[in-house]
Write a structure and sequence with these properties.
Elements lengths: L14 H20 L1 H25 L3 E7 L5 E6 L5 H8 L3 H15 L3 H16 L5 H20 L2 H33 L12 H9 L3 H25 L3
Antiparallel strand pairs: 1-2
Helix pairs in contact: 1-7, 1-9, 2-3, 2-4, 2-7, 3-8, 4-7, 4-9, 5-6, 7-9, 8-9
Pfam families: Peptidase_M50B
InterPro entries: Peptidase_M50B-like
Keywords: Membrane, Transmembrane, Transmembrane helix
Length: 243
């Protein structure tokens, strides 16, 4: 695949065609994340980014990373050692839900800068680093398959395929990040808002409420607003670039 891959050499008839592709993929992401069966499969990618966010911030906060597990029900857990309370734990718990959306904005910026090949290498590199921390078989399989898809596009895909894959992954992270936040609040309503007097480990929002004494619903609101902002920003980056 051309190492200088950019909008200019994709053979589109017009810039409008490029923008149509971005919009079509956005609609596809909305439809696929809204359908239960496909979302159950695609959510694994969002979970990878979610747990990766926990892991990165845990390390930045000086905590010792003990491993990551990804489960077949699309849930995951990132284990770290350190003080059970305090800023380090708060920021670690906070990082998960914003991570897919923020990563999506970062990838959208690379698309806007005509750095499609760089984007694919970034995805592969991040997954390779994450793989070193995976501690269960399903997690290894999920990360390897996801990385393998990116490698396959780089090796066998043409320029349009690479761009379409990059935009599709970016929209999945952006739209899927919002869908995950909506699911979080639905789950909290179904299970209750957490136990009083002890650490409510049922969700990141409830854990944050226990750690910070800020109501869990406010944390969910923060996640929701941030996800919406990232969708707008990511979409703008992909649609407004004019090489």
């Amino acid at each position: 695949m051309d190492s200088n891959l950019s909008w200019d050499n994709l053979g589109w008839d017009s810039l409008g065609d490029q923008r149509v592709m971005v919009v079509v993929l956005a609609v596809a992401a909305i439809v696929l994340t809204g359908e239960r069966t496909t979302w159950h499969v695609l959510r694994n990618v969002v979970t990878i980014a979610h747990e990766g966010g926990h892991a990165v911030i845990a390390l930045l906060m000086g905590r010792e990373l003990a491993g990551i597990k990804l489960h077949s029900d699309t849930s995951g857990v990132t284990l770290s050692r350190g003080k059970p309370r305090g800023p380090g734990m708060i920021f670690t718990a906070l990082a998960g839900y914003p991570a897919p959306s923020l990563l999506g904005v970062g990838l959208a910026a690379l698309i806007g800068l005509d750095l499609i090949t760089v984007l694919l290498w970034v995805v592969v590199a991040l997954l390779a680093i994450l793989l070193t921390q995976i501690r269960n078989a399903f997690g290894v399989l999920t990360v390897v398959l996801t990385g393998g898809a990116a490698v396959a596009v780089m090796v066998w895909g043409n320029e349009r395929t690479a761009l379409g894959f990059a935009c599709a992954v970016t929209w999945l992270l952006l739209i899927g990040g919002l869908r995950a936040v909506i699911e979080l609040q639905r789950s909290r309503r179904a299970q209750g808002s957490g136990r009083r007097g002890g650490p409510p480990v049922t969700s990141d929002a409830d854990q944050l409420a226990w750690l910070s004494h800020v109501p869990g619903v406010l944390w969910v609101t923060v996640f929701f607003v941030l996800s919406l902002v990232c969708i707008v920003a990511g979409g703008w980056l992909m649609l407004s670039w004019n090489p």
